[in-house]
């Protein structure tokens, strides 16, 4: 799951499409080409309209000049966090315009401003990040995301994550929720009964009915550490480049960037 976006081509505005088999057709209040409402819902007409857009209307599939998978939601939140850390007042359009869900968009005017902000971001000093790494390989297992309060793993009665103070496991079934384990460097061992034994270098210890940290590895890491790692603008190319293409297309066509 993540954030996708598109920009309509100009074929409809410029009279370059084939005739639509149904109607009326026009732009909704957000700037998305659609079958305008009439009396009652007509599923056949709607299906015919979307089939026309997808294949027959013009050379652009779905009448989209540009369509991008912007980033997964974790990637979006990491970029939003970097924007705030670099100075939210310097990137007001990006900070306000990147959504919390799959709706809304940017007008062509906002897209032009966002392009300038993306250029400025590329020249910015990015704050260091907090990450949990596998000590044996240096691979990042999880990163601190402020909007998630650092939580990255969920299970029945527990959640776990990383923040600047270390890796933590919380018993969410307790009232109030209680921290079962916290450490900046620790070892983990999966017991025969499936529980995980966590031992911090500071002597803290807990045995928890949870999944092992970094379980996507085979086997999962034995030793992990929370580190502060330098970040740079290039680390966010995964989202900056698709945003740049979308905004450039919006400016060129005068059509909005539509989140979806």
Biggest sheet: strand arrangement: 7-6-15-12-13-14
Largest sheet geometry: 6 strands, antiparallel
> Which regions have little confidence, pLDDT < 50, spanning 5+ residues?
none
Q: Summarize the helix and strand pattern as letters.
A: EEEHEHHEHEEEEEEEEEEHE
List how many beta strands DSSP finds. Answer: 16
Mean pLDDT: 94
What gap, in angstroms, lies between the N and C termini?
11 Å
Radius of gyration: 24 Å
| General shape | elongated
State the secondary-structure class.
Answer: alpha+beta
Q: How many domains is the backbone divided into? A: 2
SS field, number of helical segments = 5
Content of β-strand: 25-35%
Indicate the multimeric state. Answer: single chain
